[in-house]
């Protein structure tokens, strides 16, 4: 009851860890990269670091299984200009090897000539979309829409895990390159680990609402 096994992943509730089975795309050092971890069904592998052998929706389900709750994805149309949610820490290494390095360390930001900060990713969860062939049925966007992103390096409404900062695609494209630390061979089998930032139950995110109502003359009614 404490272990979830789905195609391409295992999740352990006691250890609060998800292991995703993956594969190196073989992208070369110094190349422009747009995607960190994408579904193997994506057509964007030429600008990605790693294929995931688990579906994005299953990874979402596994994170919920270990006790995490999704937040809300970046969505300017709904006036959400950055993703909201708890952080997920990542690690990647060859399958069978316990050594892990953060996904962020595989990317160099050329504007500052250093790797991306290791701050974890926001578990925003992909938005839901309508299937054109079944109007009344919704689908997990990262399962059915390219780039089918599991972990993104720019703000993406369809990504399972987003960067915890303002990073518009057109602002960061071309600046982020494959780091020399990415030394995996094409089709090399990898394991990506996903763990909550805080395993103690501590939360980074809090919901705050502001309510303003008409007041008597000379007074202000304001509650938070």
Q: In angstroms, what is the radius of gyration? A: 19 Å
Quickly give the structural class: mainly beta
SSE order in H/E notation? Answer: EEEEEHEEEEEEHEEHEEEE
Distance from N terminus to C terminus (CA atoms, Å) equals 41 Å
Overview of the molecule:
There is one protein chain. This protein has three helices and 17 strands. It is mostly beta strands and 224 residues long. A hairpin with a 2-residue loop joins strand 1 and strand 2. It is globular. The mean pLDDT is 92.
Concise summary:
The chain has 224 residues and is mostly beta strands.
List keywords for this structure.
224 residues, mainly beta, three-stranded antiparallel sheet, 34% strand
SSE topology:
Elements: E1 3-6, E2 9-12, E3 17-24, E4 35-39, E5 48-52, H1 56-65, E6 87-94, E7 107-109, E8 114-115, E9 121-123, E10 128-131, E11 134-140, H2 141-144, E12 149-152, E13 161-162, H3 169-172, E14 176-178, E15 189-196, E16 211-213, E17 221-223
Parallel strand pairs: 4-5
Antiparallel strand pairs: 1-2, 2-3, 3-5, 3-15, 4-12, 6-9, 6-15, 7-8, 7-14, 9-13, 10-11, 16-17
